[in-house]
Amino acid sequence: MAHSRDIRIGASEVKFLVDLATAAVVREWARAYLDPDPHGVGVYSDEYRTTSLYFDTDDYDVFHRRGSFGRGKYRIRRYGDDETVFLERKMRQATVLAKRRTRADITTLEQLARPHLDPAWSGYWFHRRVITRRLRPVCQVSYHRMARLLTRNGQQARLTLDADLRARTCGDVRFVRCASAPIAGGSAILELKFTGPAPTLFRRLIQDLSLNPQTASKYRMGITSVHGFSSSRVRGFDLVNLGTGEPANL
To answer: Does the pLDDT of residue 83 top 80, yes or no?
Structure first.
């Protein structure tokens, strides 16, 4: 499928910054209780390398969350060295999380450097939004991900653990393999995704490891690292919400 839309009401994405020792415990726990991601590789069929190109304006309105720029992110994501990439828009409004994603061949990304739109290209909608919102690629973020799944009541909950996070500046639409700066202070990012109340297994993991939910935007971390910007807006999360099904707007 070239295009996909995912609109979830009451969707939660709860994040935690964890040290490497805690990350190792989470990794072992997840492999004992959860199923591997169907797209994963490696010994446990649950790992892959992810690289994303993030877009922002010249004034970094997305980073500073100015107006409507604060509700959505535009990025291009690549898995490993695959020649297929994904053009993505992720938007959060109140209790609704909406994602739009289009598959494209990496060789067609040159379209984004052109001032004129090509309605025949699968990434036409992305190109149009980028031009309209005056966005350009500003940061490349890469990391090593472990992903595991939990199926309940016909729905899937997901746990991801991202480590070895690195960032570099970029000025064009190219994925570059070169020296990049570590971000997140050597920590890993644990993320739990689910709809409705948090699964009992997730609640147990949080309680057993005394985890504290917080914001952990890879884009914001990357920009802060490579540009030295200050990122002062940090929000916590009420653990009571994990039991009531109230949305985690992180």
So the answer is: yes
Name residue 76's amino acid: I
Q: Tabulate helix, strand, coil % of the chain (nearest 5).
A: 25, 40, 35
Listing DSSP states for 30-78 in one string gives: HHHHSEEPTT-BTTTT-EEEEEEEEEE-TT-TTTTT-GGGGGEEEEEEE
Q: Is CATH 3.20.100.30 the right assignment for the domain spanning 16-75+133-244?
A: yes
This prediction's pTM = 0.86
For residue 40 the two structure tokens come to 């994963």
Angle at 53 between CA 38 and CA 214, to 5 degrees: 70
Where does 140-240 have alpha helices with state H? Answer: 200-208, 218-227
Token pair, residue 201, equals 């297994």
